[in-house]
Amino acid sequence: MADEPGRSVPTHPITHPKLRLLEPQLVDYQGQRMIYLHDSLGIARDGALIPQPLAPLLSLCDGTRDISGLRSGLLMRTGLTLPEHVIEQIIEQLDDALLLENGAYHDAAAEVVRRYRDARHRPPSHAGPVYPGDSAGLSRAIAGYCEETPVEEMTYTPENALVGMLCPHIDYARGHKTYAELWQRAKPSLDEVDLVIILGTDHSGGLSMITPTRQSYFTPHGVLPTDTEVVDGLADALGRQRAYAEEIHHINEHSIELASVWLHHFLDGRACPVVPILCGSFHHFIAGGGNPAEDENIVNMVQFLREATEDRNTLVIAAGDLAHIGPAFGDSTPLDTIARAKLSAEDGASMEHIRNGDAAGFFERSRAESDSRRICGISAIYLMLEYLSGKKILGESMGYDQCPADAQGGSVVSIAGALLYEDDD
Prior knowledge:
Layout: E1 25-29, E2 32-37, E3 48-51, H1 55-60, H2 67-78, H3 84-96, H4 103-118, H5 135-148, E4 161-167, H6 172-186, E5 195-201, E6 210-212, E7 217-219, E8 222-224, H7 228-238, H8 240-243, H9 255-266, E9 274-279, H10 283-288, H11 296-309, E10 314-319, E11 324-325, H12 337-355, H13 359-368, H14 378-388, E12 393-404, E13 412-422
Parallel strand pairs: 4-10, 5-9, 5-10
Antiparallel strand pairs: 1-2, 2-3, 4-13, 6-9, 7-8, 11-13, 12-13
């Protein structure tokens, strides 16, 4: 691990280990079932393998126990007796993988953020695996997707200003038909747009976190310039320390990137300024009964963006998927035909709120269901609709699909596109 950013300094003492993040995957390793932990932020290249029976030890790493306390807690919870030196070895492995929230991680993260900010642009993190990394290859791929997905006549015309969009953030292999229909329909309205706000789903984001970046996103067609004046104003409105606390998530988060690639392509390479913002979790609102419309962070964001863009032809894009249902996401039973039809109806009800520009209705439906569909994009979609509130919206949805999420076909990710136009009448 000596070549990892920030690891040239001595390892910080580990007295009360606290897991920074936990994204476990069950894997088979040398005939044993193991828990593989990895760093979704990409700060460390290596992960950690923990024997499955020791899973309770991970939940005890909350920063309140030393090694002796971890040993006692594991004994009380599971009856397992481990020598303290074995627990120390496990903790050291987690530390080497930068999975502990300690000084070593913060040093490494600070170096990664510094390099990110000093770079000429934000480099793509999904070029190659998800889409071609060169302009010609991307153009051929998108042309093929569009040929496969011819569009029907549009309800609204460019005479209605395009002000909002729901764009998926699923990979193109599964979602290309939805992307293709959505962006072909949006194309006639894009010439009038002179600013784009992209609200990306932050899959690692904290509660109510709103995270802009001054860095510009790079696509195979070149750089999409970030409007740093708007970003700076938003950071001031949010408080700069909070605004940039999770900026590191921009490095590997795919939601803004996958929308940006289609946007840049259908702008015909035009360098339209963009405001990239990652949107964190709304779990506390869903589970705790709070109201996002009363959250100070959200209120400040929406108010500033409305004021900063009132004289500009602005398109706000929510990069979000819909439901995540089935055993792949923790459900006990796979989806059958009846369950798929029920999901389609429930998604349709949410899409009606989106088409109508109804932020409160969209959120309350999800809360009433306790987010049983696991909509991956609640915060981004809600914030798009809240930004547009006060406008009369004429919306249409398209490209609804239930994409496979496991080899057995019993789990799906549902997606759809939507275009929201302002009715000036």
